[in-house]
Amino acid sequence: MNMTNETETLHAMALARLSYFNLAMVLQLYREAGSATAVFENRNNIRDIIPDASQKLIDILRDYDVMRARAEEEWNYDQAHGIRPLDISHPDYPHRLAECEDAPLVIYYMGTADLNQTRVVNIVGTRRCTMYGEDLVRRFVADLRVLCPKVLVVSGLAYGIDIIAHRNALQQGMETVGVLAHGLDDLYPHAHRATASQMIAQGGLLTEFMTKTKADKINFVRRNRIVAGMSDACIVVESAAHGGSLITADISRGYNRDVFAFPGRVGDLASEGCNGLIRDNCAALLTNAEAFVKAMGWETDTQLEKARQDGIERKIFAEMTPEEETVVQILLRNNDLHLNMLAVQTGIPVNKLTGILFEMEMKGMVKTLAGGMYHLLN
Questions:
Q1: Is 174 exposed, middle or buried (0-12, 13-18, 19+ CB in 10 A)?
Q2: pLDDT tens across 160-173, in order?
Q3: In this structure, are strands 373-376 and 366-369 parallel, antiparallel, or unpaired?
Q4: Is 61 helix (H, G, I), strand (E, B) or coil?
Q5: When you count CB atoms within 10 A of the terminal residue's CB, does the N or C end of the chain come out lower?
Q6: Strand order, beta sheet including 258-261
Q7: Which helix (H) or strand (E) holds 233?
Q8: pLDDT band for position 333 (cuts 50, 70, 90)
Q9: How many helices (H) does the chain have, and how many strands (E)?
Q10: Which of 102-106, 202-206, 296-300 has the lowest mean pLDDT?
Q11: Rounded to two decimals, what is the model's pTM?
Q12: Of the candidates 275, 267, 200, which has an alpha carbon nearest to the alpha carbon of residue 237?
């Protein structure tokens, strides 16, 4: 990382620390200022940037220098322990998460997985799962691996459904990321250390919390929004009537993510939450991986791979504008990309790219998929 990017990240780390109880307000400040560095440079005259800045915000910024020192301490620890601080402007920061209005300014990441893969799904559920739930996860992940070989599986590394999802993803050779409710200098629960170590080499661990942050109850709720925000879809396997995974499902719906739930027997305590989600039309009923893939429009993965194996070449559309040709060439190399990823790879601003993709869809060149993805048609 060059010095300019390092400086911006350090300012973002300090600003994130200040925003712990005022996330939306400070995130708005960051976006209006254009960078964390701009906030730092104008911290003593912030109303020059935001004329209607509240007195509360002004008071918070008075502690900026203290938090900058804490950020530098964290930076040094991270560099020594293989942790990557990713501020919201970093290209490796999860683009899906960055779109959310309460996205963390900085996340801390250890791992090898691309957090902006074409397919990302979270699998969540009760900590007190049954054999029924374990079997559902095992079968779903195995079948998903066959239908869509490249899917990143996200969960919270908790007891029950979370750890079962991680372990089955690892067993199937899939990358899996755990989102933690504390700093990366520790691991909770300790019983999952071996699995976490394997995930760092075949996925990763991430958190919005600096080191020395304990796994307090409120942090788990904050953690859930990252699980939801960085994914295309949320799958609830088992949940009690008021289970924590229902929070992730609710947040997912608020982010316009697809939500699915496996049904359970009537009266089964471990499935009351899932049955309630389905009953109240808050989640689509899910029975197997094939139904999920079809609902998400992901069956093109298998079709595309088969076409490549059979040596079928894609058609090049006639009468394309230079911008449309650029989009086509990108999708030919890696089909089904998120709007933000397309913008990065084509170099076309998002607001302009949206119009180009709309015209291409009208011409029958591309189609939109769930989660803001674009697919190049044959």
A1: buried
A2: 999 999 999 999 99
A3: antiparallel
A4: helix
A5: C
A6: 84-87, 106-111, 203-207, 176-179, 152-155, 120-124, 233-236, 258-261, 284-285
A7: strand 233-236
A8: confident
A9: 17, 12
A10: 296-300
A11: 0.78
A12: 275
Q: What is the spatial distance between Cα 248 and Cα 154, in angstroms, rounded to a whole number? A: 12
Residue pair 121/232 in contact by the 8 Å Cβ criterion: yes
Which DSSP string do the residues of 206-228 spell out, in sequence order? EESSPTT----HHHHHHHHHHHH
Strand order across the 337-338 sheet: 337-338, 373-376, 366-369
* pLDDT tier at 20, thresholds 50, 70, 90: low
Q: Tell me the per-residue pLDDT of 247-276, one tens digit each, with 9 for 90 and over.
A: 999 999 999 999 999 999 898 888 999 999
Q: Which tokens sit at 147?
A: 């239908």
Choose among 91, 152, 97: nearest CA to 343: 91
Cα separation, 53 vs 55, in Å, equals 7
Instruction: Report whether pLDDT(114) > 50.
Output: yes
